[in-house]
Design brief:
The complex is a heterodimer of chains A (300) and B (241).
Chain A lengths: L1 H11 L3 H27 L4 H4 L4 H14 L1 H6 L6 H16 L2 H27 L1 H9 L5 H5 L4 H17 L4 E4 L2 E4 L2 E4 L3 H21 L6 H31 L3 H8 L2 H24 L15
Antiparallel strand pairs in A: 1-2, 2-3
Helix pairs in contact in A: 4-8, 6-7, 7-8, 10-12, 11-12, 11-14, 12-13, 12-14, 13-14
Chain B lengths: L10 H27 L13 H5 L11 E11 L2 E10 L9 E8 L10 H9 L2 E11 L10 E10 L4 E10 L2 E3 L2 H15 L6 E8 L10 H17 L6
Parallel strand pairs in B: 5-7
Antiparallel strand pairs in B: 1-2, 2-3, 3-8, 4-5, 5-6, 6-7, 6-8
The chains are: A mainly alpha (300), B alpha+beta (241).
Chain lengths: 300, 241
Amino acid sequence: MALSTSSIKNRFSLSPLSIALLGLLAAMYGPLLLHWVDGWLNKSISIQHEYFSHGLIGIPFAAYIAWGLRPQWQAQPDQWRPTGMGLIALASALYLSQLPDWMNISLPLMLAGLCLTLKGWPGLKLMGFPLALVAFATPSQLPYLIEPYILPLQHFIASVAGFLLMQAGIDVTVDQIYLRVNDQMVEVAPHCAGLKMLFTSLYVALMLIYWNDVWRSRFRTGVFLAATVGVSVTGNIIRNAILSYFHGTGNEAGFVWLHESWGGDLYSALMLLSLIFILRLIQQYVPPRLALNIKPDASV
Amino acid sequence: MSDATQPMPKQRSVVQWGLIIVLAALVAMAAMPSYLSGQWPWSTELPVPHIKAVRSLLETPLEVDGWQSIYHQEVPIGGDRWSLTEYRRLGSSETEGESFALLMRPQRSGDQQPEVEWVDLRGAHSWQVADRHTVRFTTGANGQAPSVSVTTRYFRGVSERDTFAVMQWYAWPTRGHFAPGKWFWADQLQQWRQRERMPWVAVSVLFPIEPVGNIRPHTETVTAIAEAVQQGLLTSTFRGE
């Protein structure tokens, strides 16, 4: 049995070189990660940074998955790719720039580069999901660059929210992205249009898809992601309608509660919880693949 | 998948040692100084040149060549601070002289970026927007300022009370454009090259025209005003402290 003990030992202990690599990575990126967490918890950096606050759960989850994948990782044959070296060089250059925006981006690039350099493409594929979780939680200026293009979404949300309020018998006018109730104006700003909520929902959906092995069925994955976008947009229409109602009827306390106090967080949490139920429903009622039972010999 | 895979003996530790050397060099060059000084790149903001002069636009009206400011006030729009200045053409009579209004949102600190200024302005004025198109111009180079190209959005804004030919753009020292994304990349370039940020001012020229009139006949006049405004910013604000 000596053989099996030594193989177990090999499987579960890290070589000194690996420990040194992890230590150096921690020295490089530890303070940066602390800075991210501080920004997410205290909302002290910028609105753009806040868009990625789902990293608070996503990055630990990614670390947990990667740790669990160690046996498969060690079973992979060693091979290295020039592409990996390229990524590491790029990540190093960004890190050396000492510009915070770019140092952030250096983290996922460095991790992907290390996977490619140590285990080649199979290694990158193995770690693909945790790497994606880290990449999608890396604060960047992407939301800033996207915001000008979501004006149609803001317009759509304002129109539907206005329609809903009208059905409830409230006198409301919709002007572009503004809702006027009793001469009080509410702007459906990019941030309020639920871009952040959409990002967070999709991120949580991604984690659920992995956790429940839904990714094995492309069809179910597609249905679930579409449902996620639907829930997120619908949720924001309702939220904006309620906000305009509060603002228009002078219920400032209600407005503040739902807009920036814990009411908003509660609303988001409920929306995210509903994703779990939707996934259960999909797993129960949606077939893994769309199989059209067409009998070729059926006569017309 | 094109490059060949040849697991070589000892290759593993060679690659790992190589990686350790690279990461150790990065730690020594970039992280260690921060650990020792306690100063991380994100704990101090990059400087914004001319920020004082830019901010002062809220208090003092901009000097525009050929025009005289007759009214100046700070106004709140969309939760931000804007400066509103009215100008009359120099030498014209008080009653029937040409005039225009200039609405500017100057950057006040490094963490402010151009965002949805045009939407805010439109909402604040309840404008019905028509005939929107882009107008480009280039400021003439003079001894004090280089020539820069400016791309503006130009449209007719009709509210219940008045009709304006409106020309809008973000001004910064090397260019002008109505799209925040253009400023963003100019700012990034400046960060890499000079280790400083790119100051900006959101500029909106409001030229009153006949009620629900056509803006096309006024394009030349409004462009000349816009050029004088950009020139004013280049020669005073973006050169000041």
